[in-house]
Structure formats: structure tokens, C-alpha cells
Amino acid sequence: MPDEEWERFLRESVDGTADAPGEPSARARVVTRRLRESPGEPAAWRSTAPPRPKRRRGWYAAGLVAAVALLVVALIPGRVTGWFGGDTGTGTGTGVPMAAESVRPTEPPPVDDPLRPTLEEPFRGSPAERWASGTAGITVPAARATGWMSRAQVEKALRQSRDFLAASNLDSGVLRGDRPAEAIALINPHQKNMRSFLSTAFRAPDAENDPVSLFSRFDRTRTRLVGDEIRTRGRMTYREGDRGALRVTADVTYVYPVARAPRGDEVVRTIVRRETVLSWDNPAKVITEPGTFSLISYATDMTNGGCDDTVTGYLTPQFGAGPAAGSGPAVDPYDRGTPLDKRTGASGDDTCGVATRS
Description:
By secondary structure, the protein is of the alpha+beta class. The chain has helices at about 5-15, 25-35, 55-75, 75-85, 150-170, 170-175, 180-185, 190-200; strands at about 130-135, 140, 225, 230-240, 245-260, 270-280, 295-305, 330, 355. The chain has two domains: about 1-50, no CATH class; about 125-355, no CATH class. It contains eight helices and nine strands.
């Protein structure tokens, strides 16, 4: 088509002609919009390169398919999302991984079908079926210079904070009752209260010095882990703390599928939610060692991890009759929208609550 004819076509598409249809075609509407928004760009619709019929047919076909797809998405977005395995927002997409948690949820996940877990599907029937495994389920924020630390130092501190969570709650040896040496190595050795706690917790655990308040571990003679996955969901945040320190807060829920040792086939789940606050102190103001942090606080809420006065130093899930019922309020262990200090037992109250699901 000569340039003069092409320009006339564009003018008529915009201004209309005596015999033009009252409603312009879809392409004409696009051309009109582009002319209004960027007057110098309509030539992009018509290449000055030599014509390539096969390529042009390919572009027309692709354009038609794209237009139809966009129309379908606009009309029934939920159905299209389902075609591609995405979550429609209802939480019913079984097996479809959930997006990473970036903020505190506003409500608990929906209740799925009450299917029992099995050795082959230990997370079946729970929201954890769609959670990520290991550290992949812990959201780490982007680093920025904070307090006495540069951006690179903050990035390293966040990575080491996540390493501590993994060494405390995901390490296979620790989960089977070993001493969490890697996690302990990250704690400031000059922090007196932690030195006292660690020296007692693994030697003679008691109510004040119970290692499961900070570390997830099972008695391997009684309990075995099912499979090689621990499902997690949570996030880390940070801000400037006292004396310019970097204060990191981690709020993470861990789901452990377990069975009786050595060869039990009944699968139950122990669910542990932990909120841990770490302080990466300025060595010019606080006595510390490079690569270590001070523990500001740690709080734990657990389901089917033990609910009596006996302190063993291990998580002690119940089998057979299911988790022991308590006299406290009902608690959904998968509800991450409720702050931990408002959950049963997180404010110094040792009353056992009743888990609504596991």
C-alpha cells in the first residue's frame, strides 16, 4: 500500500468517512488510542522492511489468539487461572503452591476436606499441603542500610538469621534429637542469660530451660519423621533497634509429619509456630563476636507437641487418640493472622488449648 493510502486510512479510521461503519473495528480502536497517546508512533504498525508473508501471517494469527485470550481472561479470570493451575484466591487449589507470605494474613486459610495424612501424603488434608518446604517458605525482605550496617551487611545478617532458623528447626540431626551446634554457634557467646539457658537445657531440661522453646527436636527412640520435607510458612522483618543495632524478627510456622518409631504407619502432625527476635549489635557498643547475634526474645506456640507438666527436652506428639485436648480456648494452628502474643500459652499462660485441626 502506498504511503499516501496508508495515511488516508489512518485519518479515516480516526475521523471517520461518510460510508464508514458507526463502530470502528478492534484494530482501529487501538490505532486511535495510540495516536492520541503517542502521536509519533503509528509507524510501528507498518514496517518499512521488505514484506515477509509468512511472518505477517504468523503475527496476524498470534494477534488473533492473543485478543481472544485477553477477552476470555477479562470475562472469566478465575476459570482461566484454574486452567493454568493457579490459585483463584479461594484457597481451594489443592496442591498448588501458595505465593510467599509478605504481610500478616487477614484471616486463616480455609478448612480443607478432613483427609487423614498418610505415609505417602503426610500433608494431605491441611493447608501445609500447599506450603513451601524448608527455607523456601520463609520470606526474606530486600536489604537496605539500617543502623550501623550497610546494605551488604544487612543482606548477610538476614541470610545468617535464616540460617539460624534452619539450624534450629529444619536440620535433620537436630530434629532427631542432636544438639543444635550450628545454631548455637550463631548466638553471641557473651550473652549471659543465653549461656545459662544453653548449659542447662540439654543437660537437665526443666520448665525454665526447655530446649523445645527454641529448637525443634524429637526423641528418635519414640518418634520418627515421615518423608524428607518440613513445610514452612512465614516471614522475616527488620528495623533499627537499640544503639543502632539491626533488629530482625522472624515469625514462622513449621509443620512436622511424624509416626511412631521405628515403623509405625499412623501419621500425625506437630505444628510449631515461633516468633524469634534477634539483635545484630554494633561491636563498638556491645560486646559480641563477629557473625553472632543476641537473642532479644523467643515465643512458641505448638500443636501436638506435648501438653503436660513433664519436661523431656523433646516435642512429644500423641498418637492413637490424637492430640490431647486442653481446657483452654480453641486455636487454629494454621492461623497466622493472629499475633503470637494473643495465642494460647504465648503470654505466660501454660493452659493447653484445643486445636481445631492438625
